[in-house]
Write a structure and sequence with these properties.
By secondary structure, the protein is mostly helical. The chain is built from five helices and no strands.
């Protein structure tokens, strides 16, 4: 993985989490981002995976930048994008939904 690019993007994500997310969501989001970047740090340059990985996270940063507490957080995952996920990704998404719901229920 391009170390400079990855570190810069990772820091941007964490910065947006600090600025935009409630405490419980930030904890969950920071953990997830850390795991994702760690999981893919051995990816090689020039493959087809990294450009998509970076593009998806860039889109996430842009989405966070545009959101306010009044508009809410996150965005729905459309059926096309959901269909593009592999089984591991779908499992991770289900786990993230569960953890998010639990965190929000604890908060109120």
């Amino acid at each position: 993985m391009s170390t400079h690019r990855a570190i810069s993007l990772y820091r941007s994500i964490l910065r947006q989490h600090r600025r935009k997310l409630p405490y419980e969501m930030r904890q969950l989001g920071d953990k997830y981002v850390s795991e994702e970047f760690r999981r893919h740090r051995e990816e090689k340059e020039g493959g087809s995976f990294l450009p998509k990985f970076f593009a998806e996270w860039d889109g996430y940063v842009a989405m966070l930048e545009s959101q306010t507490p009044k508009t809410g957080f996150g965005a729905p995952l459309d059926a096309t994008r959901h269909g593009e996920l592999n089984d591991e990704q779908k499992g991770m998404l289900a786990q993230l939904r569960k953890e998010t719901a639990e965190a929000m229920n604890r908060n109120g």
